[in-house]
Amino acid sequence: MSTIEKGQVMTANRLGDGLVVFLNRAGNWSEKIDEATLALEPQAAAALEALAAQDVKANYVTGTYLFDAERVDGRIKASHIRERIRTLGPTIRVDLGKQAEGKAGAFAAEEA
Amino acid sequence: MYRYDEFDAKFVNERTAQFRDQANRRLKGELTEDEFRPLRLMNGLYLQLHAYMLRVAIPYGTLSGAQMRQLAYIAEKWDKGYGHFTTRQNIQYNWIKLEDAADILQALADVEMHAIQTSGNCIRNVTTDHWAGAAVDELADPRPVGELIRQWSSLHPEFSYLPRKFKFAITGAPHDRAAVKVHDIGLRLHKNAAGDLGWEVLVGGGQGRTPLVAVTVREFLPQNELVAYLEAIMRVYNLYGRRDNKYKARIKILVHELGAEKFRAEVEAEYAKHPAQQTQVEEAELARIAKYFALPSFEKLSRFAPHFEDAKLSTPEFARWARNNLAAHQVDGYTIVNISLKPEGGIPGDASAEQMRVMARLAERYSHNELRVSHAQNIVLPHVRLEDAFEVWKALKEADLATANYGLAGDIIACPGLDYCSLATARSIPVAQAISRKFADLDKQQDYGPLKINISGCINACGHHHVGHIGILGLDKKGEEYYQITLGGSSSEHASIGTILGPGFAADEVPDAIETILNTYVKLRHSGEDFLSAYRRVGPKPFKEALYAAA
Amino acid sequence: MPLLKNDAFVNDAWVSLADDAEVPENGSIIVSLARLERDWDQLVSFTGLLGVRLTNTDKVEALESYISQITLVVLPFPAFADGRSYSIARGLRLDGYRGELRAEGNVLPDQLQYMRQVGFDSFAVSDRFPLQVWQSAGKQMSLAYQRGLFRAANEAEVWSARHRGFEPWEEQPHAG
Ligand code: SF4
Asked: A69 CA to middle of ligand 1, Å?
């Protein structure tokens, strides 16, 4: 039986290089979705938003928002295809982006 | 080709320095993202799905071998070794860092290029006929006016914060390959009764959410009045274009809401207000620019090219390519080579740095050092001797650039879609790839005849699906991609907006649906009748029946 | 709010008058277009300096009968992306208005040069940016292709420079 938890992940683009990053509860941004914090409750999501807002102010990231995701067997997967593509890279160039750099998380090979 | 003089060079260098300063201020936090965004956009820098994207202007689609080489260099040095040629005759890089952007702009400036106004609510890169200066049906090369407009619109202080983006297209030939009727302003060169050349000024065409064909605001505008008249149109738009709703902000909505008559009256009134503007400088400037576009010194050649004919006989694959991808040239013994960037299963419009270099070398050796980017996302070598065509083909073939599908079913126009674009609702490229694989058989493509299949990944219509003979629009239905099909669009001199056929299709159903449409066409066509003509004769009904009856 | 003029922050002598406020004996007052139209009979004999604040949907023609008495026109930038006032300013200058033309609202250093080129010569700016940012941002481009612009001393018009001899715009005042 796989366990599925639904929640939200905070994402942004890093200001300097534009790359997609995800936030964990300690306030660190990672290029890997697997290192993100999945906020299961509104308070947790709000805490991520507050942390993200600080880093917008600090001009470290830009374009922050929460997206829906789920944790399946301990690995995080975005619910919508748009966010899955952001966590992977272009589906038509699997040699490029996170999927090619070992940063794509568990769902890289499976589907976009 | 146009060459920068000291002024143009200084202008782009200063602009680059200005952007470097702005980017540094942003990185240091002296500018907020809201303040910086319009500044970076006006220098072609977007934030896309995976990283920053830089869109480089290729004015009126013309570039030299050295410029193409520099594009290859940029792709390798600052991106991931490739670029994407767009439907606006530009090139985009998908993996750019803000920290590098100013260096890239400087590398562009070094070869007389820039990324000015490839985005933002301003006048965008002017597009034109990709066969300009070579096409047999041309009255005059439209590119001098393209360059005049490029200069006039660059950093125009009055028109840099328009209600919305603004696109010009120009054609110098009666057969419109520049889609002037679906641009904010289209200019069409023609002769009046007295035999003088002048411009028909069309305004308010466009695609996107509300596709409209442009209306004629001036039937015949003398060349010297062009800049002053365009200023009047732009001023009316800047003052009265809607700013309350970005979906209603394009000039087409203003023209539509006011009505063509009233809009025309507003423009003429504005134009009449400043009759004192003397136009000698504009005239002199246009004459100066025109000199750069003088035809290259062509050799006097025979119309019959024996080597070319022999090669066709000995190499059927070349013969097919020659039949399909070459177009007639103004000058005997020369041909226009259309390089398809649509290999079977490929990504429409993408080229690797290596391929760019191959094309650059071929241009230098065989095409008077000129290349063109077409709005169909292909590359053109405009001035090739027929006798060299075989050599060119061999080199192209080696670089996987010799697909003989120019203008056919496999020559699909597709925007980047959800694989790259942050505005997308669905992917476009995989659909294009699936269709191109389905119709990989070139005999079949040839049998279907001239065909334009266009795919957009959202309603913004960068893939020009409204004016595709077959248009495909990717949408999102509850998190799933699905695709709406339109038929009967055209961007030619007989422009029309496609009609939606019915409910959409899942991605994997699209190739079959297209096949059904094409088989229906084959069954009902008259001898020699192309797809669009047949559609216009019979309307959507038989296609609808074929598509939805089975379901 | 600092007032930027000729590359310096200066004191603003102008006072905005509410539509229902009494007209003072003299001084420099800015009224709305509505007030100007309503109280013209009174305002025409005002002994101080008269300015008007337009909205960016007002037409230039609305000022026609008053313009000779006006020494300041204030135009708004409700958002920096709202560019209507550039065209209103250009229209006023093309019509021959020679008085002060002030931009207020969302005026940022990176738009300063455009504003100056269409004819603005004073700027009500926020104090978010130090003076030297304004000074340098307003000068980064020394060339413009368009003709008929207001040029600072360091600026040239490319086309006019290329084709000396017929320069109908030479007599335009150069804004500072
Ligand atoms: S049509 Fe939509 S998805 Fe495609 S490039 Fe344009 S904005 Fe992006």
From this structure: 25
Contact A91 B430 (CB under 8 A): yes
Residue of A nearest to B97 (CA): A17
Task: Name the amino acid, one letter, at B181.
Answer: K
Q: Which residue has the tokens 């059904």?
A: B516
pLDDT band at residue C166 under the 50/70/90 scheme: low
Write down the domain spans for chain A. 4-101
At residue B86, the 3 state secondary structure works out as coil
How far from the centroid of its chain's Cα atoms is residue B312's Cα? 31
pLDDT at residue number B54: 98
Q: How far is CA A5 from CA A83, B231, B270, in A?
A: 17, 59, 63
Ligand 1 surroundings by CB, under 6 angstroms: B 415-417, 421, 423-424, 456-458, 460-463
Q: How far apart are CA B505 and CA B485, in angstroms?
A: 8
Range of weakest confidence among B74-83, B269-278, C130-139 = B269-278
Burial of C167 (0-12, 13-18, 19+ CB in 10 A): middle
CA distance linking residue B119 with residue B310, whole number of Å: 48
| CA distance readout (Å), C146 to B268, B279, C166, C169 | 21, 12, 15, 11
DSSP state of C143: E
From B47, B98, B419, residue closest to A92, measured CB to CB? B419
What's the rounded Cα separation, in Å, for the pair C8 and C173?
Answer: 19
Query: What three-state secondary structure class fits B505?
Result: strand
Nearest alpha carbon to residue B114 among B122, B106, B124: B106
CA atoms of B301 and A1, how far apart (whole Å): 77
Atom number of ligand 1 nearest to Cα B420: 8
Is there a contact between C118 and B277 if contact means CB atoms under 8 Å apart? no
- As a whole number of Å, the CA-based R_g of chain B is 23
ipTM summary value? 0.94
Q: Is C84 on the interface with B (CB under 8 A)?
A: yes
Assess contact for B169 and B183: CB atoms under 8 A.
Answer: yes
| C-alpha–C-alpha distance, residues A25 and A34, integer Å | 13
pLDDT tens, position by position, B214-264: 999 999 999 989 999 999 999 999 999 999 999 999 999 999 999 999 999
What domains sit in chain C, N to C, each tagged with a CATH number? 3-162 (3.40.50)
Question: Does residue B457 carry a pLDDT above 50?
Answer: yes
Strands C100-105 and C70-77: parallel
Q: What is the pLDDT of residues B101-147, one digit of tens each?
A: 999 999 999 999 999 999 999 999 999 999 999 999 999 999 999 99
Q: With beta carbons less than 8 A apart as the criterion, state whether B334 and B384 touch.
A: yes
Mark which residues 78-97 of B lie under 8 Å from A by CB.
80, 94-97
- Tokens encoding B132: 């300009």
Beta-carbon separation of B49 and A85 below 8 A: yes
CA atoms within 13 A on the CB side of B85: 33
